[in-house]
């Protein structure tokens, strides 16, 4: 039991390593009954890292990707008769996938907001737009934001029409008039009269 506990502790310390790689390094006998718990624990740990304060957005996205992968592996691992209830289910995997998709949209918004900020700083006198973009960039880098905040306060507000369309797709929002309006705005920006 000491060896198994030591392996579990070592496994949880590899948050920066893909869960499947770490699991493959464990001895085969240690993987069988408890590998589902290890994958589920790795998923929870990586999600905690992704949502904790102080991390950069790119790190958060990486951790969420690993969390979703580990959760998928926990769900697909063989169920043994005397095992506890599943530590991960399809709904949990779906939630992590959705969180990851929104975080990737947040990355796109952050890159675009930084570009807009760079353009705004070219002005000799800093204006309210540049100060507002600085706040937006700080917010997007410092924490994961919800899809509504991302859409309303960033993408739509700053004319990131392609990101608005991607947001509708990620959310499964089926509003045809809105999609037509966004496509029209995007085309007008790309092909001026």
Write the layout of secondary structure elements.
Blueprint: H1 2-12, H2 19-25, H3 28-31, H4 35-51, H5 57-76, H6 90-121, H7 128-142, H8 147-155, H9 161-171, H10 176-190
Major pleated sheet: none
Task: Note the beta-strand portion.
Answer: under 5%
Distance between the termini: 73 Å
Helical/strand content category: mainly alpha
* Average pLDDT score: 79
Helix and strand succession? HHHHHHHHHH
Rg over C-alpha atoms, rounded to the nearest angstrom: 21 Å
Indicate the low-confidence ranges by residue numbers. 1-12, 14-23, 25-33
- Number of helical runs? 10
**Overall 3D geometry?**
flat
| Strand tally | 0
Instruction: Tell me roughly what share of residues is in helical segments.
Output: over 70%
How would you characterize the overall build of this protein?
The chain has 193 residues and is mostly helical. It contains ten helices and no strands. It has helices at residues 2-12, 19-25, 28-31, 35-51, 57-76, 90-121, 128-142, 147-155, 161-171, 176-190. Helix 4 (35-51) runs antiparallel to helix 5 (57-76) and helix 5 packs antiparallel against helix 6 (90-121). The longest helix is centred in the middle third of the chain and has 32 residues, at 90-121.
Features:
about 190 residues, mainly alpha, 10 helices, about 0% strand, disordered N terminus
Short précis:
With 193 residues, the protein is mostly helical. The protein has ten helices and no strands.
């Amino acid at each position: 039991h000491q060896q198994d506990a030591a392996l579990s502790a070592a496994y949880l310390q590899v948050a920066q390593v893909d869960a499947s790689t770490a699991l493959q390094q464990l001895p085969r006998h240690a993987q069988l009954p408890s590998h589902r718990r290890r994958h589920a624990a790795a998923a929870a740990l990586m999600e905690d890292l992704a949502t904790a304060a102080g991390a950069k957005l790119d790190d958060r996205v990486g951790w969420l990707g690993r969390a979703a992968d580990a959760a998928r592996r926990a769900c697909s691992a063989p169920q043994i008769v005397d095992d506890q209830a599943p530590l991960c289910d399809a709904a949990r995997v779906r939630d992590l996938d959705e969180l990851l998709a929104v975080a990737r949209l947040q990355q796109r918004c952050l890159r675009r907001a930084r570009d807009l900020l760079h353009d705004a700083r070219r002005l000799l006198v800093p204006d309210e737009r540049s100060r507002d973009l600085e706040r937006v960039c700080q917010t997007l880098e410092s924490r994961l934001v919800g899809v509504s905040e991302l859409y309303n306060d960033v993408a739509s507000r700053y004319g990131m029409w392609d990101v608005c369309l991607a947001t509708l797709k990620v959310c499964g929002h089926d509003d045809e008039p809105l999609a037509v309006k966004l496509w029209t705005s995007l085309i007008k920006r790309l092909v001026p009269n």
